[in-house]
Amino acid sequence: MELSPSEAIKQELLSWKGVTIHEHNFVSMTFYVNGLEMGHLHGDSIADLQFPIRVSKKLVREGYVMPHHIIPKSGWVSHEIQNAKDLKAIIDLFRFQYNRLIQSR
């Protein structure tokens, strides 16, 4: 049986050292590394991650993400989940975030 998009992302992220997951009432899954939020998934439809504003603007400008679907000028960005290409892109964004956060410790 094929995994849902959120389960596939969850499985990958939880294989990384120090990553944990927490359930939330507005968000289906929030991922942390060493106690810092990496980002979260709204079911199988969208991923949200927060970066420093200059990084967020660059990611939006280069077409990797769109501004956050509710709070666009916050540093949060969103990426819709529509196909396998999106899964890879979202995992890549989480990997970028993971590397950024483990280096900040």
Give an overview of the whole structure.
By secondary structure, the protein is α+β, with helices and mostly antiparallel strands. The protein is 37% helix and 27% strand. The protein has helices at 5-14, 53-61, 84-103, and strands spanning 19-22, 29-33, 36-42, 46-50, 66-67, 76-80. The protein has a six-stranded antiparallel sheet with strand order 1-2-3-4-6-5. The model has no long low-confidence stretch (mean pLDDT 91).
Describe the secondary-structure layout:
Layout: H1 5-14, E1 19-22, E2 29-33, E3 36-42, E4 46-50, H2 53-61, E5 66-67, E6 76-80, H3 84-103
Antiparallel strand pairs: 1-2, 2-3, 3-4, 4-6, 5-6
Helix pairs in contact: 1-3
Give a short summary of the structure.
37% of the residues lie in helices and 27% in strands. The chain is built from 3 helices and 6 strands.
* Share of residues in helices: 25-40%
Tell me the span between the first and last alpha carbons: 39 Å
Could you tell me the number of beta strands? 6
What number is the mean pLDDT? 91
* Number of contiguous helices: 3
Shape: globular
| Order of strands in the sheet with most strands | 1-2-3-4-6-5
Our Rg estimate from Cα atoms comes to 13 Å
Structural class by sheet pairing and helices: alpha+beta
How is the biggest beta sheet arranged?
Answer: 6 strands, antiparallel
Unreliable runs: none
Order of helices and strands: HEEEEHEEH
